[in-house]
Amino acid sequence: MARPWRVAIVGGGITGLAAAVRLRDRAPTGTEITVYEQSGRLGGKLRTGELAGGPVEFGAESFLMRDPAGGESAAVTLIRRLGLTGAIVHPTVGQAALVVDGGLRPVPGGTLVGVPGDLDKVAAVAQPAAAADRDGGTPLLPPDADVSVGALVRDRLGDEVVDRLVDPMLGGVYAGRADDLSLVTTMPALARAARVEHTLVGAVRAAQAAAPRAPGAPVFGTLAGGLSTLVAAAARESGATIRRDAAVRELHRTPTAWRLTVGPTRDPEFVEVDAVLLAVPARPAARLLAGPAPEVAATVGGLDYASVALVTMALPEPELPELSGFLVPASEGLLIKASTFFTTKWGHLRRPDGLALVRASVGRYGDETSLQLTDDDLVATVHRELSKVLGTPLPSPVARHVQRWGGALPQYTPGHLGRVAAARTALRAAHPTLALAGAGYDGVGIPVCVRSGETAAEEIITALGGSAA
Question: Which among 429, 437, 416 is positioned nearest to 188, based on CA atoms?
Answer without folding.
Answer: 416
